[in-house]
Amino acid sequence: MINAKCPKCNNNIPIKDPKIGQKVICQSCNSILKTIWLLPIELDFWDEMIELNKHTLESDVPNRRNKA
To answer: pTM score, two decimals?
Structure first.
């Protein structure tokens, strides 16, 4: 078991078998994080919501070529 620090609240988060890109939730502040580095272990904020919002925004843009 390896302990990582939450970048938001500095809480120690135990991770049993860390892998790059692994989703982790801080039990102290409920931040959704991902493993970005293994030695030393480092976490960053999970950006899935940003990716989902970007996809939604792109699909909401009307296609101007079809409006002639």
So the answer is: 0.65
